[in-house]
Specification:
- With 218 residues, this protein is α/β, with parallel strands linked by helices.
- The chain folds into two domains: 1-70; 76-198, Glutaredoxin (3-Layer(aba) Sandwich).
- Helix content is 45%, strand content 12%.
- It contains four helices and six strands, in the order αββαβαβββα.
- It has helices spanning 3-69, 122-130, 144-155, 189-198, and strands at residues 76-77, 112-115, 134-138, 160-164, 172-176, 179-183.
- A six-stranded mixed beta sheet has the order 1-6-5-3-4-2.
- Strand 3, helix 3 and strand 4 form a beta-alpha-beta unit.
- The longest helix is centred in the N-terminal third of the chain and has 67 residues, at 3-69.
- It is elongated and about 120 Å long.
- It starts with a helix and ends in a 20-residue tail after the last helix.
- The relative contact order is 0.14.
């Protein structure tokens, strides 16, 4: 091969190598652009999803707060300032049945989702209300199925207790400190509304006080 032919072949190889390098660099640039684009799309999607989830959580929280502030339809209220909180060792005559506050025994009824199948002392139950418990009561007008449904619900709800009160006016009644609701059925949506609003609710004179290690007659 002549010197001229060799030079031409070398130049051709060099040109081919440069072309391959340019093509490789172009592929690298395309891959980088593609990677950046995909990453950007993923990040934007995650941010959007996170914002959506946060907004949904905020909406749910706002709805729950609004529900807590709104009175439960049909509930009765008593002036908290007139509900005395003295500890007494004697029986107390309460103006409402079941009682929703007033002087009470120094010992509370255990109210950690506790279901009592027999009547319990009002004076001990009122002390539980002072600690932020909701007291679910029923009489002979309540259907057996409703009593079971309520018992199951109470058993799963800390700061609640349940017992029969034969001489109460309503079939099913829910009492918190200064608050009371009467319903006919356990399926009434106001039952859960009352529990949500008043279990350790704003009406509680001693929020966070114990509901365990009290009197337990279950």
């Amino acid at each position: 091969m002549s010197r001229t032919s060799k030079k031409s072949a070398a130049a051709a190889r060099k040109a081919r190598v440069e072309e391959l390098r340019r093509a490789e660099k172009a592929r690298d640039r395309r891959n980088r652009v593609l990677t950046i684009t995909v990453s950007t799309v993923i990040v934007v999607g995650l941010v959007a999803f996170g914002a959506y989830g946060l907004n949904k959580a905020n909406d749910k929280d706002e709805q729950q707060q609004a529900a807590v502030k709104k009175p439960v339809k049909g509930e009765k209220s008593w002036n908290a300032k007139k509900l005395t909180q003295n500890h007494v060792a004697k029986a107390v005559s309460y103006p409402m049945n079941p009682p929703v506050g007033g002087d009470h025994n120094q010992a509370w009824m255990t109210c950690d989702g506790t279901v009592y199948t027999k009547a319990i002392p009002n004076e001990n139950a009122v002390h539980s209300l002072e600690h932020g418990a909701v007291w679910v009561t029923y009489n002979d007008k309540a259907a057996d199925a409703d009593v079971k449904t309520l018992a199951d619900k109470v058993a799963k709800t800390p700061y609640t207790l349940m017992s029969p009160v034969k001489d109460q006016a309503g079939a099913i009644m829910l009492s918190a400190w200064g608050k009371q609701l009467t319903v006919d059925k356990a399926s009434d949506p106001r039952v859960q509304q009352f529990l949500t609003k008043y279990v350790q609710g704003a009406q509680t004179p001693e929020p966070g006080a114990a509901c365990t290690n009290g009197i337990d007659a279950s």
